[in-house]
Structure formats: C-alpha cells, structure tokens
Design brief:
Helices cover 44% and strands 12% of the residues.
Length: 848
C-alpha cells in the first residue's frame, strides 16, 4: 500500500521518532502489518469513525467499565477500546511465549524459596533487604505448604518493545492480576462491530486458554475434590476493575462473594448462604494480600475473612494466587532476576528486562547518583502507589532532594533506564497517530508448565505526547492479535466440560451478601418507583392549581405537601413550625426533597441506594438490564445539571424515569432466576410497596374532610397508586372512602392492594430456608400476624369516624400495627439470613 497517498496517515510522521510497530526507520511498512493496513484503508476513514463510535456505544451499553480512583467522574467510567488492533506474528510470539513461560517458572520457584528455604538469600544471590523491607513479604505466609503442582498459579507480565526492537519485560503482576476479562471483551467487541478488520487475517483465539483457566481453578481444590466449590472474592463495586470481577463470575459460572459472605469454622472456609454454611474449596481472589485476613494481616480490613490464613496452613482451601505472592511485584528483584534464573534453571532469561540498579549496593548506588538526571527512580515497595521520579523532568533542587532520600534509605530505591517504548497506530479523529503501548500477557499453571494466552491486553497512552501508559491516567486499550499462517476460526465456543458444573443449584446456596443486596435492591427499586409516581402526582396538582384557585384545591395541595414530608420522612418540611416557611415557596422545598443528596429520605438518596444495591449484583445482570440501568443514571445526571427547575421539567423527568424503572423491574424478573435469589428481590419489592401503601393511607385518609376535599384527596391517592382507571372500571361510581379502602387495602385479587402484597409476602417468605426445628420462623410468624390483622376488620369498621377526633381510629390503628409487623418481618429476615456482624480482631496489632 502507498503510505504517501493514504489520508489515514495524515500527520503521522510530524514528530516521528523512536521505534514504531508499523514503520521502519526509512518509513517502509513492516510486512506483518500490510494486510491490516489494507483492510483499514478499504474500510475508509469515515466508516472507521462510525465503527469507532459504535464500539464506544457497545462497550457503554454492555456496561464495560473501569473505575478511576479519586475522580468524581471516574466511577464506572466506560472502558475505551480503539478499533485498530495490535499485531504480533506467530513466529515472534512463540519466542515471547517461551520467555513468559520461563519467567513464570522462575517466579514460581522464587516465591517458593522466599517463603521456604530462602536459599537465594543465604547464598547472597538476592540481598535480604530487597525481600524483608518490602511490605509484600508477609511473615504470616512463611513455610506454608501447598498441594498444587505450582505455587504461582497466575502470572501477568507487562511487555513493551525496547529500542533494540525486542519485547522487554516492564513489570510482573502476581497478586491478583487483572485484565483477562477486558482482553476477552475487547476481542468479542471488535469481532461484533467490525469483522471486516479481520479480513484474510488468521488471528489466534483465546478459547483454549480460558478452558485451561477454568480447569486450573478446579484442579487447585484440596485432595483433588470432584466438583469443588469455587468462589471469586471481590473487594466490592468501588474497586477499579469490579466490572471484570463480575464478568468472570458470569463467564465462568462461579459466585461472586465479598469477605462478609465467608467465615472460618473448624479449620475450614465456608460460604454463608441462605440455608447455612457451604464449604469453599477454591478462592479466586481479587483482594490484595494484606486485606485477606484481619486476624493475621491488616486488622482494619473489612475485605477479607478472619482466620483464612490458618485454613490455608491446614491445606483445606486453595487461594489463587497464594497470599504473599505480592512480593514478586517488587521492582527491587529485577536486577537479580537473571542470576535467579541461572540458579534455578541454569539458563539466562529469554526476555530482556529494563536495565535496573538497586541502590542498596555501593557500586550501583554510585552509578545511580552520578546519572540521576537520566534515570527513572522508584521505591522498591510501591504497594501504596508511591511516586515515580523521572530524572529528566526534575530541576536541580528536586534532584538534590531525591539524592538525599536515596542516601538516607538506599535499600528502598531502585533506578531504571529511561527508554522510549514503541508506538503503534491509534485511530483518532479520522486519521491514525502513533501512541506509546504496553502489552499485558497472561500465563496460568498447567500440568508441569504454563499456558499462555495468545495475545492479551494492550494499553495505550492517553495522548500522542504522553510517555506513561496508564488506564488510571485516561489511557485506552487495543485488541491484541497473534497472527498465524494457519487458518483460524473467528467464532469460538466458551463452554466447560459437564463435570465442571458449579454445584450451586438452588435458593439455599445463594451467598448471604448477594441475597441481602437482592432484598434491598427490591426495596429500593420499589421505593424509587412509588416516590417518583407520588412526586409526579403532586407536581401535576401544583400545575393544576395555577389554573384553578378554588379553596378546596389549595387545601388539598396543602395536605399533599404535608404527605410528601410524611411519606419521605424529610422532616420538618411542610410540617410543624416550618410549615409556613415551606408554603411560601413550596417548589423550593419539593426541589430539596427531590435533589438534595445530603438530605435523609430525599429522592436523591433513594436513587443513590438503588444504584449501589443493584451495581453490587452486576454479575447477575443481562446486557439489557445494564442498558436500561445506564439510561436511568444518565436521566438522573441530566436532571442534576439543570440550571433552573420548573414544574414541567420535573414532571417530564419523572415521566421518563418511571417508564425506565418499570422496564428495569421487568428485566430484573426475567434476567435472574428464583434459585439465584430472585425470591429475595420479590420479598423486598412487595415489602416496600406495602410500607408505602400504609404511609399514604396514614397521611391522607385517616382524617375525615368535607365531601369535596375528600374526593380530591382520594383521587390523588388513586392517581399516585396508578389505580384510578382500575377503580373506575371496577366501581363505575363516585369516589367513596368505602370503595377506596376495599380496593387498595382489602381486595385479594388486585396486585397493588395491601392484602395482596402481604399474601404475596407470606407465600415468598414460606419458600425461604427454615434452618430451625420450630414450625415457623420469626419472619413467618410476623407475616401471619399481619394477614390475620387485615382479615379481622371489615370495611365498615375501618372507615368509621370518631366524632371527637374526626379520625378513622380503627384504620389508623390497623395501619400502625401492620407497619410495625412489617418492620419486624424485615428485621427478622436480616437477622436470620443476612447477619454479617460476626467479626474477630487481633490481640496484638500488626504493622505492615
């Protein structure tokens, strides 16, 4: 292809320097990239732009996210994938693959030695300060024996092409390597949006690697247990790669759990499920080393399991990767890696590394201090994301300060050669431009060696001039192609052998934290829908009053305002001494109850709770659920960014969000099976709807009003309950308190009546596991009492008005008793099935 006439390469060479993956120093095209560049040219700049937009849309629609720490706009930021892939030919990859396999084996033996015989330290191959001064070395892991053939089960290496044209190892990731899920999603997305890019290019697929990965987890189980229980341990939704945790959980079919789901008993690890405790055999952890056991490691950790290390010692559970493997991410080990390789394997490292100097050695320290302005300096321990110093960007005073730091604690610092990594083309604004790249590879233990994913994850610098490649700094990603001469099948099937089926078969096995989130997601979704409808009704009434100034209209509105405060519990609001002040500008108070995120009971707080409880269940969602969920968040964000709130703007918002919330409710019911915990969602949803039905009656119906005013109040109640049309169809008569109570409270067939809701609650609660010997659980007893209360009174008794107080006292009493019984039911469900209060603490503090 002719580069000079290709508009895709406009300005590509304006600051061309260093090593580029596509072009040689004389601007010739690397033959390995010829076919891909032809495909891109045939697609054309305009269509590439359209496809890039489609990829961005697809990733956002599928909920592929990457959280950015300390960035208010970074939570759940959409993952970025560039349409132009990165290519390595099979012949070069085979060399890289051997280098990765060798490095994985060296790190495996190194890990075994560090926590075992420590021969490397005894023989002076590795200075003891490099190991013992690093926070990744955990004394609690010393001398632990493992039953797995390899100690290091997963290894990820970051590669970049150095100035000599070879791939160099930049970093090793061994604690809880991330990126596998993103790499797989990248491949699936590119294949779906732009299969033309693959035209006549034989790209190796990662399906066999993921089958090996699944088998690794099964083989890791102690005593070769058949069909072991495997779980994926996550820190939770705020972790930067939480999407991947959920993705792997859904993809592999293993439950996603948090530390609060697990407990140690009798030297074994158990998962707390609805029925009781279920023994766990294998934990794929995404929690960093020091957080996994608050008894022996970080005592302030809420992410791990107290006593887990003792279970590991007794070889009753396998942790993937083993706790303590974070020591291998120590850059202070890099200068000694070739000697380590020679000691263990009697070989030189196949893959080169960045030239590194540990400052704990006198000769090396002198070299570093003499060439400080040209080197990159970092602490050997970067577990707290310590600063990296680029000497070329430091002034004289900063260089002096860095020199003093090195002299004060020389063993804490390592210096590395500052090299420019290669660039590869990125599609930006209808043309290609060079960007720095780093390739992340993955290897997993298999039989006597390691299996390497063909390709991996390519990370790309955020800007053309950016030297650092970091997702936290806004970088993007690429699909990573290993191109073969042999014909490949682009369509891959990711399925596991039938003997690897996960034994999580029923509601009894749902993890307690998942069950709790399902229960509260039902409650928060119900509360969000009900309050949204109520606000819409009140706002519509406010709009009507502008055209109708009858006294009864304004009096009904005053009652509705008070009901807003009572139903949301946003006191004082329109009640008490604050009533006159709020009534002078009711829209301002309504705005506050809707939008004030700091106000307890506000719609904003309900939205926040709804968001968090559902996002914690990300691994159970269908893609349609994410799309609707994302559209709800965008609607809410757009409302918050409004400069001037009017009644029409607020009504329009509630019209739109209610339809999306109802769609989301429907998708929840069709996307999650009852045996996966949907039963808890139903219980939470029905309970919240029952609570709000009671709240509406207590604030609107208990006091008797004159006939005209009562008509308007009852109409507002039915309208907010989405029952006005049902009422008219059922009764075909003037609104009466008797008929409203019959329909909304006592009708056994109407799904939105309180009686139906309580009956549904009893039916669902009866399906929950009963672990005791008693005939009924506490929550069953409470809900039975609630049903009996409703049945015990007739319509005539409920609507009877006390002449002195002008109140329906029997109705008020029933509503209060039902509210208390439902509250007791909710508490008993939480205490029986979701109790995470069990916690152990260290007798003596540990400093890490």
């Amino acid at each position: 292809m002719s580069i000079s006439t290709n508009t895709l390469f406009k300005d590509y060479f304006k600051d061309f320097k260093g090593y580029d993956e596509v072009f040689t120093s004389d601007l010739g095209v690397d033959e390995n990239w010829d076919k891909l560049l032809d495909n891109l040219s045939n697609i054309g700049a305009k269509q590439l732009k359209d496809k890039q937009v489609e990829i961005d849309w697809l990733l956002a629609e599928n909920g592929v996210t990457y959280n950015v720490y300390n960035d208010p706009k970074g939570l759940n930021r959409p993952w970025k994938l560039n349409i132009v892939p990165f290519i390595i030919q099979k012949k070069e990859w085979e060399f890289i693959e051997k280098g990765i396999q060798q490095r994985s084996e060296v790190l495996n033996l190194l890990l075994k030695d560090i926590y075992g015989k420590r021969e490397l330290i005894k023989k002076g191959i590795v200075p003891f300060e490099v190991v013992f001064s690093h926070r990744g070395f955990l004394r609690a892991c010393d001398q632990i024996q493992y039953k797995t053939a390899k100690q290091l089960l997963i290894h990820s290496a970051d590669l970049a092409r150095g100035p000599d044209g070879r791939m160099w190892v930049v970093n090793d990731r061994t604690q809880a390597p991330s990126g596998m899920g993103y790499a797989l999603e990248n491949r699936l997305s590119i294949n779906k949006v732009s299969p033309e890019v693959f035209g006549d290019i034989n790209v190796e697929q990662p399906s066999s690697f993921f089958k090996d990965f699944n088998q690794l987890l099964l083989n890791a189980a102690p005593s070769n247990k058949e069909n072991p229980t495997v779980v994926i341990l996550t820190p939770g939704p705020h972790n930067e790669t939480y999407f991947e945790h959920s993705y792997l959980s859904s993809f592999l079919g293993y439950p996603l759990v948090k530390g609060s789901d697990l407990v140690v008993r009798s030297g074994k690890l158990w998962m707390k499920s609805l029925k009781g405790l279920k023994q766990v055999d294998v934990v794929l952890r995404r929690v960093d080393d020091v957080f996994v056991d608050p008894l022996e490691l970080r005592e302030d950790s809420y992410l791990g399991v107290a006593g887990l290390m003792e279970v590991v010692r007794q070889q009753n559970v396998a942790i993937v990767n083993p706790v303590g493997s974070g020591i291998l991410e120590n850059p202070g080990l890099i200068p000694f890696m070739n000697s380590i390789c020679k000691y263990f394997l009697n070989e030189n490292l196949i893959l080169p590394q960045i030239a590194s100097w540990w400052c704990g050695q006198e000769k090396e320290r002198e070299f570093v201090l003499e060439h400080l302005s040209t080197l990159v300096v970092k602490r050997i321990d970067r577990t707290h994301r310590e600063h990296i110093y680029f000497g070329e960007f430091l002034n004289a005073n900063e260089l002096k300060n860095l020199k003093n730091k090195i002299l004060k604690e020389p063993y804490q610092f390592v210096a590395q050669e500052n090299i420019n990594f290669s660039t590869a083309p990125n599609f930006v604004a209808e043309h290609l431009e060079p960007r720095k790249i780093v390739c992340r590879t993955f290897s997993i233990a298999k039989n006597d060696g390691y299996s390497v994913m063909p390709g991996g994850l390519v990370r790309v610098a955020a800007e053309r001039s950016e030297l650092l490649v970091s997702n936290q700094k806004g970088g993007t990603s690429k699909d990573f192609w290993v191109v073969s001469d042999k014909k490949q099948h682009n369509i891959q099937h990711y399925s596991w052998h039938k003997t690897t089926a996960n034994p999580f078969t029923g509601i009894n096995d749902v993890p307690s934290d998942t069950a709790e989130n399902l229960f509260w997601s039902g409650r928060y979704l119900g509360r969000t829908i009900v309050t949204a409808r109520y606000f819409r009704m009140v706002l519509n009434q406010m709009a009507n009053v502008q055209f109708n100034h009858r006294k009864s209209e304004s009096e009904s509105l005053r009652i509705l305002f008070q009901s807003v405060t009572n139903i949301t519990s946003t006191f004082p609001g329109f009640t008490g001494e604050n009533e006159d002040k709020a009534m002078r500008n009711p829209l301002k108070e309504i705005e506050s109850v809707i939008l004030d995120e700091k106000r307890v009971g506000s719609f904003a707080q309900t939205m926040s709770s709804f968001y968090y409880s559902y996002y914690s269940l990300r691994n159970l969602w269908s893609r349609d659920m994410w799309r609707v969920f994302d559209s709800i968040q965008k609607l809410w964000q757009n409302l918050k960014e409004e400069e001037n709130y009017t009644i029409p703007i607020l009504v329009k918002f509630f019209d739109r969000i209610i339809t999306r919330l109802i769609a989301f409710m429907s998708l929840t019911e069709e996307s999650i099976m009852v045996k996966q915990g949907l039963l808890l969602y139903f219980i939470g949803l029905q309970m919240e709807e029952a609570f709000t039905t009671i709240a509406k009656f207590r604030t609107l119906v208990i006091v008797q009003h004159n006939e005209e005013l009562e008509y308007e109040i009852l109409e507002s109640l039915l309208s907010s309950h989405e029952s006005l049309n049902i009422y008219r169809y059922s009764y075909k008569s003037y609104l009466s308190i008797e008929n409203v109570v019959s329909l909304i409270l006592l009708d056994k067939e109407y799904a939105k009546s309180l009686t139906y809701q309580v009956k549904r609650l009893k039916k669902d609660i009866d399906r929950l596991p009963n672990n005791g010997n008693e005939q009924f659980t506490e929550c069953q007893n409470n809900i039975i009492k609630a049903l009996e209360k409703i049945k015990s009174l007739s319509v005539e008794e409920l609507i009877k008005v006390d002449s002195e107080s002008n109140m329906r006292l029997q109705l008020d009493k029933l509503m209060e008793e039902l509210s208390n019984l439902l509250h007791a039911t909710s508490l008993s469900i939480s205490n029986t099935y979701f109790n995470h209060s069990y916690q152990q603490t260290q007798l003596v503090g540990t400093t890490l």
